[in-house]
Amino acid sequence: MIAMNDFPHELAIGDVYLSPFLPVFGVALLGAWLTAIMLNKFRLSRYIMFPSTTFLALVALYMLLMNALWIRI
């Protein structure tokens, strides 16, 4: 039998089962936050009209990239 995914479908912390969506969202949030800091440091954020929407788009982009390349949700 061929396994489609080597990662477990849920994460077990003690007796609590968590969705793999939770750590993916956390890492994507951290990545978007660090990207926003770098954009502010290099003064590239002044070219962005809606920073909050851009931040949400970065979170979604990082989640999609992690889903495609690293952890399959």
Terminal CA distance? 21 Å
Helix % is 40-55%
Number of strands: 2
Structural class: mainly alpha
Rg over CA atoms, rounded to whole Å, is: 16 Å
Strand order of the largest sheet: 1-2
- Helix count equals 2
Q: What oligomerization state is this entry in?
A: single chain
Shape: elongated
Q: Tell me the number of structural domains.
A: 1
Query: Are there runs of 5+ residues with pLDDT below 50, and where?
Result: none
Major sheet, described briefly?
Answer: 2 strands, antiparallel
On the 0-100 scale, what is the average pLDDT?
87
Written account of the structure:
This protein has 73 residues and is mainly α. It has one domain (11-69). Helix content is 55%, strand content 8%. The protein contains two helices and two strands. It has helices at residues 21-41, 51-69, and strands at residues 11-13, 16-18. Strands 1-2 form a two-stranded antiparallel sheet. α1 packs across α2. The radius of gyration is 16 Å and the shape is elongated. The two termini are 21 Å apart. The model has no long low-confidence stretch (mean pLDDT 87).
